[in-house]
Amino acid sequence: MSKNYKITLLPGDGIGPEIMKVAVAVLQAIAPKFDLTFAFETALIGGAAIDATGHPLPDETLQSCKNSDAVLLAAVGGDKWDSMPSHLRPEQALLGLRGGMELFANLRPAQILPQLIDASTLKREVVEGVDILVVRELTGGIYFGKPKGIVADENGVRRGFNTMVYTEPEIDRIAKVGFEAAQKRRGSVVSVDKSNVLDVSQLWRERVTAISSDYPDVKLSHMYVDNATMQIIRNPKQFDVILTSNLFGDILSDAAAMLTGSIGMLPSASLGVAGAPGVFEPVHGSAPDIAGKDLANPLAQVLSAAMMLRYAFNEGAAADAIESAVNKVLDSGKRTGDIMADGCEKLGCIAMGEALLAAI
Ligand code: IPM
Ligand code: MG
């Protein structure tokens, strides 16, 4: 009997709908080969949801996501909604989804593909072989901490503030995700904090160290975030798993992504408690400047679908099949504009999708 999975699709804004179309076609092509069936439900998010309902994350969308086996998200945002009040901006949909689905663990791999080494701005010898997994805490820290706000004192002088806060259980559960990921990789975790200055980071370091005693096979070290930023650019091959908080992970994952030279290639997973649905999405944004022009690179979206098969459904063979189709297409010299190199063949988003289907 074939296995059936219910997937909520959130195409969102900008290039989102174009790249989502490619990922869905790839999933549909893979399904019969592995005796899988997918039931897709498309829901509104981001600017598209604001236009249709006045809210970036309508209740029906959150409900649909919670009731599915996994969520495939493309991207949200665009100039059109940049002047909205902050609680109604498209980006709020991401925070609402993360908070509402309790997606506390964000996995952001930055792996350099041999075919694309020359797309990196760093020297070949620095980036060749880079394979980093950033494990970012996603539902706590300064993104969600209270109190927060902008208030005026009696003289009308305004003060803006946020609170960086972590409880012990919040640190413990993300630390476990980091150590377990390292066990399946090269067995090393670098925990990144700012414990030379911040109290919240002192607790972070203390708890991560305590949890590490349950993982004697994993080597733990600690780095301050400023040094870690420098080390990612100086010698990225020293890293296996980088375990860090919400804000530091936001920043470090962009730096790690750029080692590969092509943010258009990177997938990510946001996971909650065991058994709850996760959200899978490309690391890149909605790229409004190229939206609707058939110029987008759909590969990060397609690789996010592969990550969904692997992490959410435990369908490793189906995930491998998608990843090897991506490799085959790159090996044959086919490229979208963002990863174009001398001697390669330049394709649009639709043609790249067709090339993937042919490779499956
Ligand atoms: C990311 C983004 C988001 C974040 C924004 C768009 C809210 O930068 O997913 O890294 O800061 O988490
Ligand atoms: Mg970011």
TrEMBL record:
Gene3D superfamilies: Isopropylmalate Dehydrogenase
UniProt keywords, alphabetically: Amino-acid biosynthesis, Branched-chain amino acid biosynthesis, Cytoplasm, Leucine biosynthesis, Magnesium, Manganese, Metal-binding, NAD, Oxidoreductase
Highest taxon of the lineage: Bacteria
Cofactor annotation remark: Binds 1 Mg(2+) or Mn(2+) ion per subunit.
Family matches, as SMART domains: Iso_dh
Domain Isopropylmalate dehydrogenase-like: 6-356
Molecular function, one GO term: 3-isopropylmalate dehydrogenase activity
Cited Pfam families: Iso_dh
Name assigned to this protein: 3-isopropylmalate dehydrogenase
